[in-house]
Amino acid sequence: MSDVNRPVSRPLSPHLQVYAWTPTMVVSTLHRLTGLALTSGTALLTWGLIALASGPESWSLFMSLASSLIGMVILIGFTWALFQHMMSGVRHLVMDTGAALKVDDSRKFAWFTFVGSFGLTALVWAAVLLG
Length: 131
Prior knowledge:
The chain is mainly alpha-helical. The chain is built from four helices and no strands.
């Protein structure tokens, strides 16, 4: 067998299975995923506004679906995605100023986005359900 036909042995690039997930990696990935979720959620919000403008029957159908268990899960998930995306955007704005660029600061800020998004979601839905 000649050297021309022999496969070249090359090192494989590390992939997601090799890396230990860090909070900053998760925030970055979630920022992209929540952006996609917000696009879908905006379509549902548009449907709700059209139903509201179309009259009581359309609004009643929309509200019956939105107030069902699956509808509530989607609405709460949309709220969390909105806050997670917002908190991640604020994190990037702060980091663009040159602040929080050290590894420890960046990691703490990443955790803050999780805590902040869950906390704000809980506050909004507590106000909706209790108020």
